[in-house]
Every structure is written in C-alpha cells, then in structure tokens.
Specification:
The protein is an alpha/beta fold. The protein has a domain of 206 residues: Isopropylmalate Dehydrogenase (3-Layer(aba) Sandwich), CATH 3.40.718. The chain contains twelve helices and 14 strands. Bound molecules: 3-isopropylmalic acid (IPM) and magnesium ion.
C-alpha cells in the first residue's frame, strides 16, 4: 500500500523550502521503504491566480483522500488588497476547517547549538522544550456572527464572536493531556477567564476533564500573564493548551525563544490523525526567490508528518538527527547565522541534510 501525500508549496518562500523537504523525503522513502506517492497542488495566492479561489474544491478533495498533506506557506503583498473572502489565508483556514484539523501542535524546541540565536539570555532558554497545543477550528477565527455592519448613526462597526462549545474544549484538552503524558506530565491551560465567559467555560471543562488524567498536573493562567511568563521564565512550561487566537499569538512568541521561527515545524491533526504539516513561519515574501530562506522548519515538518500520520518513527528520528548533525557542523542559514559559523543558502542547507541523512 502506498502513502499518498499531497504537497502544497504555496507562495513566497514556500516552493523553495518545499523543494528541499522533497529531496529529503525522497531519500527517506528509498532508505526506509516508505512507499510515498507525491501529488502537488495549489493553495493561497498561486491558487487565486490560477483558479480565482485560494483553495479549489478539487484540491480539497485530493487532500481529504490523502494520508497526509505537507504545506509550505501562503500569502504575499500581491494579494493583500483582495477582498477578505478570497485572501490566500482563507485557503488555509478552509482546509483546516474542512478537514477537521482541530489540534495544532507547535513545539518550541531549542537546539542547543542555537542557544545564542535566541533573543533571550542563553541560560533562560537552554534546554527549552515547550509544546503549544492550539485549538484550530473554532473560537473567534470561525465564530458567527462576524462581519462589518452599518450602525444607525452611519458609523461602521466590525464584530467577531468568541465561541467554544464544550465538546470542542474537551477534545483539544484530551490532545493536550495525552501529549503531556508522553513528555513532562504538565498542562497549563491558558484563558482569559477573568473577562471572557467563553473562557470561563473553557476553564471549567479543562478542570473536569483533568479528573480523567489525575497523573497529569493541570494549571491555569490568564493569557496576558502567559505572554509575560513566556519571555520571563519560559522553561516553567511543558504543554500549553489554549484557544485559536491566543495560540496563534503565543506560538509566535514561543517560536522566537528558540532563536528563529525558521526552525519550527507544526502539525494540525483531526480525529483520524490525518494531518496537515507546515512550518510555523509564513511565506516571507521579502526574501522569496533569493535562496536565503531556512528550509529546516519545512524539513522538520516533513519529519513530523512521518511520525504522526504515517507512523514512521525511524525515518522521522533519522531526519531530525540529520538536521541536528548539520547544525553541529556549523551550517547556518541567514536567520540563525552567528559569527564563526558557515552561512549557507536554502539549497545548500537542504543538500547538507540529504547528505547527513545518507550517513545516518
Ligand atoms: C498561523 C498563521 C495563520 C493563522 C494565518 C496565516 C491565517 O498566522 O498559522 O499561525 O492565523 O492561523
Ligand atoms: Mg500565526
């Protein structure tokens, strides 16, 4: 049986970094007999250019039938002024929603070789290993009603709705508790229960769920405090579980603690562990096409895909080890470059991982 993988390179640096991840996957396929079958398609701005919509139904269907989806990034200035309903980001939100990818796992792991690249003091981040579990198909991102309306006085008013039903909180809570069991056994649930009723309920559901996971320690933190604690003493966290919008914001902060957002992969999973894998960083249009983007988050996303959706632990371990050994050799893309190391471009970095994987 083959493993069908849909590749969605997207916009900006997406295609460049995807090309490197594909090289790595092709080698892993040969080495570990993974029987991968690739099919490439469009998402985001390039899909708008080709089809007039950021995610064609035919692409969505392909993704729903695949074993996993590997995505680059979407968006860019070319499409920024488009009507909100067909912006590139809508393609990403649609695929998350339609595939039911409610559990977004965003690890913030500091490679010891990169401790100096963090904007925090090395002693604050050395050994950092946090997992942010972000709810991805609900909350204010999808809540109705939403829009911009005209008030009686002629003024316009923008509005969105922050909603969470109990089952939505419970299922993401389960993901967090299960993940914590495989790590440090601690979950910190982040909310704004001092102000928002939706998160009062969130906290209640987490508390009652925690009775089923008495071996895991549950704590609660308001989101403003969590943002502060992440830059004050980030190592206090193991697993952070939170809603869609807070997770969006906190995961960027957590990413930067590790030195570069260019290093971090993510997985978005549904009930069936089918998933979409993408780097946490965006399409970086300012550096697109220059062979300077860091392909490691994309390559690590491919490893995550092998681990979570295809159950290929050995191949995933080998790719992660290859990335570590490339860093050991002192190779650095521009975003993680420090004096004394060797600056390399996107392709050279990809080639180095391929070579290291060959040697693993
Ligand atoms: C992310 C991104 C997306 C989000 C955008 C591109 C829609 O910021 O994956 O974190 O807000 O979820
Ligand atoms: Mg974001």
């Amino acid at each position: 049986m083959s493993n069908k993988i849909v590749l969605l390179p997207g916009d900006g640096i997406g295609p460049e970094i995807m090309a490197e991840a594909l090289k790595v996957l092709e080698l892993a396929d040969k080495k570990f007999k993974l029987n991968l079958k690739f099919d490439e398609d469009l998402i985001g701005g390039c899909a708008i250019d080709a089809h007039g919509v950021p995610l064609a139904n035919s692409t969505l269907e392909k993704c729903q039938q695949a074993d996993a989806v590997l995505m680059g990034a979407v968006g860019g200035p070319k499409w920024d002024s488009m009507d909100a309903s067909i912006r590139p980001e809508k393609g990403l939100l649609k695929i998350r929603y339609e595939m039911g990818l409610y559990a977004n796992l965003r690890p913030a792991l500091l490679y010891p070789q990169l401790a100096d690249a963090s904007s925090l003091k090395p002693e604050l981040v050395a050994g950092l290993d946090i997992l942010i579990v972000r709810e991805l198909t609900g909350g204010i991102y999808f809540g109705e009603p939403r829009g911009i309306r005209l008030l009686d006085n002629g003024e316009r008013q923008g509005y969105n709705t922050y909603v969470y039903a109990e089952h939505e909180v419970e299922r993401i809570g389960r993901t967090a508790f299960e993940m914590a069991r495989k790590r440090g056994n601690r979950v910190c649930s982040v909310d704004k229960a001092n102000v928002l009723e939706a998160t009062v309920l969130w906290r209640e559901v987490m508390q009652s769920l925690s009775r089923e996971y008495s071996d895991v320690e549950l704590s609660h933190m308001y989101v403003d405090n969590a943002a502060m604690q992440l830059v004050r003493a980030p190592k206090q966290f193991d697993v952070i579980v939170t809603g869609n919008m807070f997770g969006d914001i906190l995961s960027d902060t957590a990413a930067m603690l590790t030195g570069s957002i260019g290093m971090l992969p993510s997985a978005s999973l549904n009930n069936a562990s089918r998933g979409l894998y993408e780097p946490v960083h965006g399409s970086a249009p300012d550096i697109a096409g220059q062979d300077v983007a860091n392909p490691l988050a994309m390559i690590l996303s491919a490893a995550m895909m092998l681990r979570y959706s295809l159950d290929q632990t050995k191949a995933a371990d080998a790719i992660e080890k290859a990335v570590g050994s490339v860093l050991d050799k002192g190779l650095r893309s521009a975003d993680i470059y420090a004096e004394g190391s060797t600056k390399v471009g996107t392709r050279q970095m990809g080639d180095a991982v391929v070579q290291a994987l060959n040697e693993v």
